[in-house]
Model the fold of this input.
Amino acid sequence: MSNGTAVSEHGSGQSQHPIGIYFKIWGWLFVLSTLSYLVDYFHVQSYLRWTLILVLMMLKAGLIVAFFMHLKWERLALIVTILVPPTALLVLVALMLIEGDYTFFTRMAFFG
Amino acid sequence: MEPQGWGGVVNDLSADREAYHVPWGKLMMWIFLLSDTFIFGSFLTGYMTVRLGATDAWPNPSEVFALTIAGHTLPLILIAIMTFVLITSSGTMAMAVNFAYRGDRKMAARLMFVTALFGAMFVGMQAFEWTKLIHEGVRPWSNPMGAAQFGSCFFMITGFHGMHVSAGVIYLLVVARKLAAGRYDHGAGGGKYDIVEIAGLYWHFVDLVWVFIFALFYLW
Done:
């Protein structure tokens, strides 16, 4: 029986990745950041702008989490534990979208 | 004999099988980062809510954060440089973790110092940005450019992130110094330099949060 202070004896599951992969990811992050900067620089507007910003954001976030934070090489149990709970935030975002719009229309109706 | 009372509770709850096959420190860092995700997620959602509800025009970040360098006005240039600095620091941190697992603690410590240096640069540029905006009259309750909510969102979100970066710089310096001095060499087993990866997770998370702030606050 464990006494509650058991320290994991497993290795961390770190394989020895060649250092080159970090340079590659680094390069990609540079390219993606430059692209998102150019979205602003060239005044891309409206839906195209928002789509580009979100896609580039998710790509960058994915690269950082998967490679820099090594999540790609973790066991699925840990990956699921980390990635699933934040999706609850989407519910909050959806609710606050409605709330924000409601606030706006109320203000326009009574103070506009 | 089975312990009773609170001792029994502790015993029962800690007697479970190990679910995650990673060092406990790393798992604790992930759980902390998960909670931090909710903090920043809530901040960004709050920002979205007040921006949606604002009846005055939202100040255009592209103009607010423009800098004039050698006669050219570049939109958002400081923020872009800050982004590149932070990404670079993440790159050097990832390499530090790699060297730590190869057992090269000197090189790992050196790369961690470099990472901390980039982090300090980032905080410095953020201090410059805050100073500039405060001089231009941006306050948490009002600003001359438009919707009053802009200031509170800006100071709260970038301030909280900057605080994370500052804490990260201190954390990295402490770990790197101990690493260089060989203080982790007597840890058990092959995972004696796990602390480097754990510190790295925190640092990459700070970079990750910046990706979202950059996209949703500065570019939107």
Remarks:
- Chain A touches chain B through 65 residues (CB under 8 Å).
